# Entry
Amino acid sequence: MIRSALLSTILGVVVLLAPTAALAKGASEATITGPGLGDGIRLAGEGDPGGGALMQIAEDSGFFPAVFRTTPNPMLSKRPDGELGPRYTIVYVMPGPSDVVDEIRQDVYPYATPSLVSYMKPGQPYFGTERTVGGWYVAGPTLKDDLVAVGLRATAPPVADDAGREIPWKAFGLLALLVALAG
# Structure
């Protein structure tokens, strides 16, 4: 009798945890877009050939604490000081219950100084009823290495003006400031 009750309890726990384990696998794919990437870079998900790159980028960019509540929480509510440089957006495809697929967006700044950072908007829906924690995340230098390995440039791409002339990012910021002041 006790053995039967124990077996039923274990089976019940396994049944309850199975959907959670399936959902915790992460993104099935992702696309990175931004300056110099044309149509973007598509990354395969975990379990697919080459899927390790996506998992490493997700780990190093703070994807997991930005999506799932963690303790301690490394997410910042305010943008860290420094220059961000060009923004790249990673759109993660998250399969959920009942064949629902959500997309979670995360902005990454691989050329930011003094530290690389990422940002995820809080409240993005996933898995039906869940919402992202969001916020700013100070990433380590390995994030840039991960992104360069999948196709980003080692240095920030130049920005082009309306005539197609390349201007450096700092000059672009000064140009934007001058236009704002003149307007």
Q: What stands out?
A: Residues 56 and 146 are 7 Å apart (CA to CA). Residues 3-24 have pLDDT under 50 and may be disordered. The helical segments are 2-23, 51-60, 63-67, 142-150, 169-182. The first strand starts at residue 29 and ends at 33.
